[in-house]
Specification:
Shape: elongated
Largest sheet: none
Helix content: over 70%
Number of domains: 1
Order of helices and strands: HHH
Distance between the termini: 30 Å
Number of helices: 3
Structural class: mainly alpha
Strand content: under 5%
């Protein structure tokens, strides 16, 4: 995953929102590769990205949206 360690370490609301947005962009790109039948598409990577995305969104809601 193309995320810097500093991006993962930033647990502020802004940092988490930025990470979630980046994950959403990565998911969209992976989805496009899959729909296009591109040879670099990897279902395991897609599932892993989706799991991390859902985990981060849940953590954001839990920590910052009472």
């Amino acid at each position: 995953m193309a995320v810097a360690p500093s991006e993962l370490a930033d647990r502020s609301s802004y940092g988490r929102a930025a990470l979630i947005a980046k994950l959403a962009r990565m998911l969209a790109a992976e989805r496009q590769r899959g729909l296009a039948g591109h040879w670099t598409y990897e279902p395991a990577r897609h599932r892993a990205l989706l799991a991390v995305y859902h985990h981060e969104k849940a953590a954001f809601r839990r920590d910052f949206q009472a």
